[in-house]
Amino acid sequence: MELEGLQKRIKLSDPKEGIEGEGEHCVAASEETELQIQRILHKINSFTQQVSEILEAGKALFKDLTTDFEESLISIHREQVEKWEEEMKEICAHDSANEAAGSLLRNAQFHLFQNVHEDS
Predict the structure, then answer these.
(1) Residue partners of 20: CB distance under 8 A and separation at least 6
(2) Distance between CA atoms of residues 15 and 28, nearest Å
(3) With a threshold of 0.85, does the pTM exceed it?
(4) Angstrom distance (rounded) from CA 75 to CA 119
(5) Nearest-CA neighbor of 92 among 104, 80, 81, 100?
(6) Which regions in the chain score pLDDT beneath 70?
(7) Is 19:38 a contact under the CB 8 Å cutoff?
(8) SS3 17
(9) Which residues, listed in sequence order, are joined to residue 24 by a DSSP beta bridge?
(10) How far apart are the C-alpha atoms of 35 and 29, rounded to whole Å?
(11) Residue 39's closest CA among 17, 10, 19, 9?
(12) Which PANTHER family match (predicted)?
């Protein structure tokens, strides 16, 4: 974030309008007062710049964390879905094997009953 944007969000007072304090207005009258005000304004600008840099670093950190979190969650989902798909394949394979075994048993039973009836 740029310094001007942060200043707008923080809403810094305009030193040219005077500085309010304890119900009085202090208008820079002497050179010493002007220097003190300039030092304070410099501190404000430096601090605002630091805050801006920290905000940007924080945003970048959270963006990276968000990306890592999304990738991890997607990976977990993908792995679980793959396990369930494999489980479904195994169930289908077992079902096919059971159907084939059932068919063989029915055929064997049919042939046994035919042999029993032919022998009687």
Answers:
(1) 13
(2) 9
(3) no
(4) 65
(5) 100
(6) 1-29, 120
(7) no
(8) helix
(9) 21
(10) 11
(11) 19
(12) OS03G0108700 PROTEIN (PTHR35500:SF1)
User: What sign has the CA pseudo-torsion 96, 99, 104, 105?
Assistant: positive
| SS3 track for 43-98 | HHHHHHHHHHHHHHHHHHHHHHHHHHHHHHHHHHHHHHHHHHHHHHHHHHHHHHHH
pLDDT score at 29: 66
Token pair listed for 57? 């670093």
Which token pair is 95?
């079902």
pLDDT value, residue 24: 45
For the record, the structure tokens of 75 come out as: 């990976």
Q: For the segment 11-21, what is each residue's pLDDT rounded down to a tens digit?
A: 555 544 544 44
Contact 52, 1 (CB under 8 A): yes
For CA atoms 73, 78, 81, 83, the dihedral sign is: negative
Among 43, 37, 51, smallest CA distance to 3 is for 51
